[in-house]
Design a protein that fits this description.
Length: 151
């Protein structure tokens, strides 16, 4: 039976992180499509799914914390291949995280533009309502006919 080392645990956590980040990237890509389509109901459902993954990612990050204080060169790996694989997966995690941040920023920008457009339309509707009220008041004041007759 093989004894599990600290570096085995570290490698497993890095693999878990990579898996969660990959699933988050898939959801973020879908999120960008939904934001472009403007379906807020689907967006909220997707965001709820993302929340569970983000909580899982946070749990993994907490488990990785003790390894951050270690000197990477002092770690004892089973082999140089294990070390290289863990390094490659960690680099992939960094790449996925950068990609996620870019997608999130794009979605945030697009949502901001959508909100501004909606606010602009609402403001325009407010002006139309205000003008209509003023016009209606003007007509009701000037269009009163005196239908009384003096006979």
């Amino acid at each position: 039976m093989t004894q599990r080392t600290d570096t085995d645990c570290l490698a497993a956590l890095i693999d878990q992180k990579s898996d969660v980040l990959s699933r988050l990237r898939q959801l973020a890509t879908r999120q960008a499509e939904i934001v472009s389509g403007g379906d807020m109901t689907k967006l909220f459902t997707l965001l709820a799914s993302k929340q569970a993954l983000l909580q899982n990612l946070q749990r993994i990050e907490t488990q990785l914390d003790p390894f951050r204080a270690q000197d990477p060169d002092a770690r004892q790996w089973r082999s140089s291949e294990h070390r290289q694989r863990a390094r490659a997966v960690a680099e992939r995690c960094e790449s996925l995280l950068a990609e996620l941040m870019a997608i999130e920023k794009q979605c945030e920008g697009e949502l901001s533009v959508r909100c501004d457009n909606i606010a602009e339309r609402l403001q325009g509707m407010h002006h139309v309502t205000h003008a209509t009220d003023a016009y209606t008041q003007q007509i009701s004041t000037h269009s009163q006919l005196d239908l009384s007759s003096e006979t």
